[in-house]
Amino acid sequence: MKNFFKYLFSADAARQDTRNHVDSFHEQQAQEEDVTFVDHGIQTISLENIIGSVGKYGDFDSRFRPKKHMSAQRFTEIKQAMRQGRAIPPVKLYQIRNQYYVLDGNHRVAAAKELGWTEIKAKVVEIVSARNTLENLLYLEKTKFLEKTELPREIDLTEVGKYKYLEQQIRKHQDYLTSQSGKNCDFIRAARDWYHTIYLPMTSIIQNGDLLKYFPGRTLADLYTYIAYHHWDSSTNRRYGIGIDRLIPKSMAGFRSAMLEKQTPEYPEMKRTITAFILIDTDAMTETTLSDRLFALDEVREVHTVHGSIDLLVKVVLQRDFLTSDAETIAEFLDQQIRKIEGIKRTQTMIPGRSLVKDGFAG
Q1: Is residue 12 included in any domain, yes or no?
Q2: In this predicted model, what pLDDT tens digit does every residue of 215-258 receive, in sequence order?
Q3: Cβ 30 vs Cβ 129: under 8 Å
Q4: Total structural domains in the chain?
Q5: Is residue 357 situated within a structural domain?
Q6: Where is the ParB-like N-terminal domain (predicted)?
Q7: Taking Cα atoms as reference points, which of 55, 50, 60 lies closest to residue 22?
Q8: Is residue 359 a part of any domain in this protein?
Q9: What domain range includes position 245?
Q10: Hey, how many other C-beta atoms are within 10 angstroms of the C-beta on 85?
Q11: Closest Cα partner for 107 from 69, 65, 68, 50?
Q12: What share of the chain is helix, strand, coil (3-state, %, to 5)?
């Protein structure tokens, strides 16, 4: 194995420029230790994932443009041929996880990038590392999951073992579809149905609710897996709001049935509204101006000047997701919107418990 890589890199080592070049396959491969080669044949590869070269990384800058010492004539001829739509052979790439290094076809990759192409045909050989790192374990789990399900690569998890959970969930869904139709449903078909009728609606709801901001470093698939497990499979108490019970049916089959008739814009939002009354003590000289400024806020529904120990009574309607408490939402609104207004001396907030409102007066 060592001789193989010596052969690949020795001819171009002298041209190495450590300041401005595409990534070196050699440097990355050295971190992978023992490796196995897997031939994936001809594939269509996104150009943005081709980040380096096996032996020519010193000849191309960090944007994969040929450096000045390279032959401009050859590059121009290749680019001309590609622009005219003439047939070109697939480039040859080495793959390490989700990134690719050019073994043969550096000029074709450079020309494709310069012409604004997004993809290129390539013969791909994957380098699978035996190094026992979290990154490698996750990559191997994901690869096996995608091979079994044939689903898109966008399902990214950050915990080992979670792809196995998703696979088990799809097998349950396979049993459900078989029982509903009375005909055997194969695993690939069940995976496809699960993806479109369960995974995509749930992740759309999560995304629309902007819930990922509470989980830095986690992915959409992580949050889907967490909610799905605690909502549909676990009997232990959850750590997120109980309002989600009104939004998501308590079974995966029930959720699928509820989402089947809906288009993406019709998916329910993981949000609810809070009505609160804010009592404000002001600098008397600015009361009228303050009323106008407060009423201009989107969240403010009513502003009343009053007599007594306070000067203004303000009704607000705020929106919060199921992971934030009423108190947190109101506190943030007061800090970010109300208390920054000059002339406000003191505030007191009241949240109504039971409310009775006659028809035509709600809002």
Answers
A1: no
A2: 888 999 999 998 899 888 876 665 555 556 666 788 898 888 88
A3: no
A4: 3
A5: no
A6: 43-137
A7: 60
A8: no
A9: 147-261
A10: 7
A11: 65
A12: 45, 20, 35
